[in-house]
Design goal:
The protein has 213 residues and is mostly beta strands. It is 0% helix and 79% strand.
Length: 213
């Protein structure tokens, strides 16, 4: 009997840098018969939580937040490359604790996501990802990465990441290692330097994983 095509991917990530941290987990599922390796509609769910300084200033207090979003989109597959676009609703809760004030805020927003992954040559991969959160105080994020195969399925290369929200911005430049298979999962590691407004420059570390089934 033929094995059915892989139709679902479970993923997670961990991000740490400059007195902040954020972790997330999610799932994406193909809505067609061809699975994830064929063009078609995709549905996804994701939840995350993190902590950082209140108002981007560590000496003021702490900020704790959670966010979840559900999305529907379409993914175009062409040989070893794909383009994915999706749209969905996001709900975010933020608890801010300072020396003289406690607050709990809720926000609903529209989120747009896009991703391109392409094998430009046999040993060369290009990836670009971006999202926009459209609400009171729009939020934008983008990442561009390229990598070359070093041995087996391991790919190493540079990455550039940018984030902006209201008058705050952050830029990261580092290296990432992808294609590490361990415990039945595919892992990605990233590290480098970041600079941002209202925060001291420093280092960052990211960890990502996914499991297709």
């Amino acid at each position: 009997m033929e094995r059915p095509p892989l139709a679902q991917v479970i993923f997670g990530s961990l991000d740490s840098g400059s007195a902040t941290g954020f972790a997330s987990v999610g799932v994406k599922r193909s809505l067609g018969y061809g699975g994830l390796d064929a063009s078609g509609f995709r549905a996804g769910l994701q939840w995350g939580a993190g902590a950082g300084p209140a108002r981007r200033k560590p000496d003021i207090g702490k900020l704790y937040r959670t966010q979840s979003h559900a999305q529907l989109g379409y993914e175009w597959r062409i040989a070893d490359s794909f383009l994915a676009l999706s749209v969905g609703a996001m709900v975010e809760a933020a608890y801010r604790e300072t020396r003289d004030h406690l607050s709990l805020e809720h926000r609903r927003a529209l989120r747009l996501d896009g991703e391109i992954w392409s094998r430009l040559a046999r040993n060369w991969v290009l990836q670009a990802s971006a999202y926009a959160v459209l609400a009171d105080g729009n939020r934008y994020w983008a990442r561009l990465a390229t990598s070359w195969r070093v041995i087996g399925e391991l790919y190493l290369g540079p990455e550039l990441e940018a984030y902006r929200e209201r008058d705050y911005h952050k830029v990261r430049l580092g290296m990432h290692l992808a294609g590490l298979h361990f415990l039945g999962l595919d892992w990605r590691l990233g590290a480098g330097f970041q600079t941002s407004r209202n925060e001291a420059s420093g280092t960052y570390v990211t960890l990502g994983l996914h499991w297709k089934r």
